[in-house]
Amino acid sequence: MAELMKIRTKLVDGSAHIVVLMIHPMETGQRKDPRSGQVYPAHFIQHVTASINDKPVLLAQWGPAISKNPLLGFRVKGAKAGDSLVIAWEDNKGEKARATATIA
Amino acid sequence: MNQLRRLILKGSAGSGALACALAAGLLRPSAAFAAEWNKPAFEAKAVTDALKHIAGAGATESAEILIKAPDIAENGAVVPIEVTSRIAGADSIALLVEKNPFPLLAYVDLANGAEAYLNTRCKMGQTSVVKVVVRAGGKHYIASREIKVTIGGCGG
Known about the structure:
The complex is a heterodimer of chains A (104) and B (156).
Chain A: E1 5-12, E2 15-22, E3 45-52, E4 55-62, E5 71-77, E6 84-91, E7 96-102
Antiparallel strand pairs in A: 1-2, 2-5, 3-4, 3-6, 6-7
Chain B: H1 3-11, H2 17-27, H3 39-43, H4 47-55, E1 60-61, E2 65-68, E3 72-75, E4 79-85, E5 90-97, E6 104-110, E7 117-122, E8 128-136, E9 139-151
Parallel strand pairs in B: 1-9, 3-9
Antiparallel strand pairs in B: 2-4, 4-7, 5-6, 5-8, 8-9
C-alpha cells in the first residue's frame, strides 16, 4: 500500500512541533460528475488521534471541508527526543490508517 | 458494526470525550477512537446551530485567540489556517467557516501537554468569516476573521 501519512517533528524550546500530511481524497459529497451528473459520494476522515508514549495528546473530529490530502500541525509541550508518536485516522467508510514516528 | 463498543461509548458520554477515549483505550488498545463523531454539530447548516452544539451556552469574544490565515485566498480548496490561543488551560479548539454548506470543519480535543495550537488547510466555498472557538476551564471563547476567496473550493 502506498504510504498514507508523512510525519515531521521538530523540537523547539521544549515543545515538539509535529506536522502530519495524510493522503486522502476528502470527498465532500457535494461535487458532481460533470458528465453523468451523479454526486461523488462523501469520503472523508472523521477521526484523527495522536498519542505520545501511549498517552493521547490530540483527538480531532473532522468534517468534509478539510482540504484534500489533509495537513495537521500541532504542538506538544514536554515531549522529548526519542518519544514515540502514533497517529491514527478513521474515515466515514471505516477505512483506517496508522503511522508511527519518533520525536527528534 | 461493533454494538458493544457503541454502547460503552454512549454510556460514558457524560464524562467528556477525553475521559471516554481513555476508557476506550483501556478496553481496546488497538482501536481506541474517541467519542462518536459529533454528527448534529457537523451536519448543522447554520453557524448558530453548529455553535450551539459545540459551545452550548455561548462564547465570549476574545482577543487572545490568533488566527493566522491569508486575507485573500486564491484557491478556496486549500486555505491554510493556523490558530494559536493564549488563553490558559485551553483543552479544545473548534474551527468554523460561516458560509460553507456545513460550517463546522474541525473539533479538536487537546490533552497531556498539547498546546493550544492548530495548523490545517481547509476548503472554503466563498468569501466568509472564519470562527475559532476555544474551550478553557469549561468556558468558551470565540474569535473571527474574514478570508476572501477568489475561486471557491467546494463546487465541481
